[in-house]
Design a protein that fits this description.
binds D-xylulose, two-stranded parallel sheet, binds cobalt (II) ion, 2 domains
Length: about 450
């Protein structure tokens, strides 16, 4: 196998003064922070689909980027060339994980039998590369949104036959995730949603999605999958309304159908913002529910209303992300998967590396700054103090469920009705963040 990215060597950490575009300025993989290496805090993963498959096609124009890697597209030779390219790419960047959809790694065949045979063949090859390099699988998933049969979703489809084809696909995807030792299995409800209520039975669709997930958990556990199942919330696109709208909605769904013991959430930055939240909000909601599973690392564009999947460059956002992750104690089976793609006009192999270097450095800097915010302590201290009226007296009784409306009404008689809560001091807190970010 010959080298694919010939003019690019191993990407090294050179420090923030470096002007070498093919070097890390902040990501120093082995630097120890809070007793763990940077690479362990961040557990970066390469997304097979954007990096090795997407060629910059958009609805107005053809691809701009050649991802043939020297093979004829649509063949198993091409599938293998993508494996070669992917492992060379990850090795050069020091990325230790990858994530994939079943249909990213092979061209889908006309029969399930042949598709599965191709999956067996390619995963044998991937496994060889994993053994050679030590690179691991973070998570896998089934693409149940591209093929026309999934026009109405997979679990949410109106066709029992399509539902069965989806089940067959998840079964095989679980087989290969287990074969590759994947730590997670993702359900992104690509088309699990609806366009109009005029033709939609929401109750039936949601119950069917839950039973597909339940059967998947049963099968996964039966074949020895010990990792986490993840739901990846997204409010819209491609559907007008998607059932896994945001973290809160997905958690409610998982609890309603008793799936919350096996599932956690895979939070994607650009999906949270499409739902009208900050990235940090959906991370916090997942964390306080014990369900922060993994992260799809990217960023959107505030001026656009769709999923732009850009490489993260916003240090404020990555700082707040790592702040949540550190406070939560990390992600057991998760990591930071770059569900990010180069802009269509950044079409050269070097751009693939620049994208990852940007994303990895932005998260490394976010990690460093999040640690500084935590060590500084002023924000934590402020929040603690802000709620301190619940630490004793009547406040404590409220927290502990030791009171009732009658007692509180009696207590309220002695409170000055003009009382105000303490100042929220948002501007003071924002300037603390700035002083740490730009120190
Ligand atoms: C789509 C998206 C997916 C999932 C995996 O918006 O994020 O790529 O991450 O299916
Ligand atoms: Co994603």
């Amino acid at each position: 196998m010959s080298e694919i990215f010939k003019n690019i060597g191993k990407i090294k950490y050179e420090g923030k003064e470096s002007k070498n575009p093919l070097a890390f300025k902040y990501y120093d993989a082995d630097r120890v922070i809070y007793g763990k290496k940077m690479k362990e805090h961040l557990s970066f993963a390469m997304a097979w689909w954007h990096n090795l498959c997407a060629e910059g096609v958009d609805i107005f124009g053809a691809g701009t980027t050649d991802k043939s890697f020297g093979a004829n597209k649509g063949t198993m030779m091409h599938a293998k060339a993508k494996v070669d390219a992917g492992f060379e790419f990850m090795s050069k960047l020091g990325i230790e994980y990858f994530c994939f959809h079943d249909m990213d790694i092979i061209p889908e065949a006309d029969t399930i039998e042949e598709t599965n045979k191709r999956l067996d063949e390619i995963t044998d090859y991937i496994k060889e590369k994993m053994d050679e390099t030590g690179i691991k699988c973070l998570w896998g998933t089934a693409n149940m949104f591209s093929n026309p049969r999934f026009m109405n979703g997979a679990g949410s489809t109106n066709s029992a036959d399509v539902f069965c084809l989806a089940a067959a696909q998840v079964k095989k995807a679980l087989d290969i995730v287990v074969k590759l030792g994947g730590k997670g299995y993702v359900f992104w409800g690509g088309r699990e949603g609806y366009e109009t209520l005029l033709n939609t039975d929401i109750k039936l669709e949601q119950e069917n999605i839950a039973s597909l997930m339940k059967m998947s958990v049963e099968y996964g556990r039966k074949i020895g999958f010990e990792g986490d199942f993840f739901i990846e919330p997204k409010p819209k696109e491609p559907m007008k309304h998607q059932y896994d709208f945001d973290a809160s909605t997905a958690i409610g769904f998982l609890k309603q159908y008793n799936l919350d013991k096996d599932f956690k959430l895979n939070i994607e930055a650009n999906h949270a913002t499409l739902a009208g939240h900050t990235f940090q909000h959906d991370l916090r909601i997942s964390a306080i529910n014990g369900m922060l599973g993994s992260i799809d690392a990217n960023q959107g564009d505030n001026l656009l209303g769709w999923d732009t999947d850009q490489f993260p460059s916003n240090v404020y956002e990555t700082t707040m992300c790592m702040y949540e992750v550190l406070k939560y104690g990390g992600m057991k089976n998760g990591g930071l998967n770059f569900d990010s793609k180069n802009r269509r006009a950044s079409y050269t192999p070097e751009d693939m590396f620049y994208g990852y270097i940007l994303g990895m450095d932005t998260f490394a800097l976010g990690l460093i700054k999040a640690v500084e915010l935590i060590e500084d302590g002023r924000i934590d201290e402020f929040v603690k103090e802000r709620y301190s009226s619940f630490n004793e007296g009547i406040g404590k009784k409220i927290r502990e469920g030791q009171t009732n409306l009658e007692e509180l009404a009696e207590y309220a008689k002695n409170i000055d009705s003009k009382v105000l809560p303490s100042s929220a001091r948002q501007e003071y807190l924002e300037s603390i963040v700035n002083s740490i970010l730009f120190s």
